Amino acid sequence: MFLDERLEKILEILSKEKKVKVNDLAHKFKVSEVIIRKDLKRLEIEGKLRRTHGGAILLKELVHTIALEDRIINRTKQKEKIAEKIISHIKEKEVIFFDVSSINYMVAERLSKIDKSLKIITNMPSIAALFNKNSQIEIIIAGGDYHKEIGGIIGSEAINNISRYNADKAFIGCAGIDIDTGRVMNFDANDGNTKRKIMDISGQNFLVTESKKINETGSFNFSNLKEFTGIITEKNKLEYSNDIRKKLSEDDTDIL
């Protein structure tokens, strides 16, 4: 098979399967994995795919940043279930940091209606506004530059302000997780670096995301699964494949 023909076949497989693995392609085309990696690199340079650890995905399948307001409106059953799970991990008198996340907004809505003594730090102003009538919960907003599309305060000034605080637990959102490498991603460097600082000042960090984000990707790596106490999705541990459970176990990350 000629090179151009093989490249065309790889793209055909990608269009159907959405992702490919180097070892599978090497076996299919009866060539070495080194050759397949060169093929994928060439297709990436041409803008037709994005290489991942051990394979590749179609560029059109990449997650894109969606305005926070739209994500809040999109109240899926999965997000509702995750929000309920998060509530169960928040204890009386704790200091909680809520990162910019539509799921965290839904958690805050629930907390604003119950009697629980907490201190909440957030870089998401819309979360803070929910507690105007709740005297039990103290609110601290990290100051800095407000990013309208992301819906949060991010960047160097926010990072400087966040560094002044300490939190017991932080709940962090993401755009994608590479389960093979453990990389946790988003699309904006300022947002990613802000998330990184939030994690630095927190005793425990929890990754909160819908399970569909596993094996989706982003353009900025801000953390690794190993740095999280646990991952909270709508699924229970036994609903995941053995491969995913094994990978998370290797990273010492609990499925909560």
TrEMBL record:
Keywords: Transcription, Transcription regulation. It comes from the Bacteria. GO terms for molecular function: DNA-binding transcription factor activity. SUPFAM superfamilies: NagB/RpiA/CoA transferase-like, Winged helix' DNA-binding domain. PROSITE patterns: HTH_DEOR_2. Pfam families: DeoRC (PF00455), HTH_DeoR (PF08220). Residues 3-58 form the HTH deoR-type domain. InterPro entries: Carb_Metab_HTH_regulators, DeoR-like_C, DeoR_HTH, NagB/RpiA_transferase-like, WH-like_DNA-bd_sf, WH_DNA-bd_sf. This is Transcriptional regulator, DeoR family.
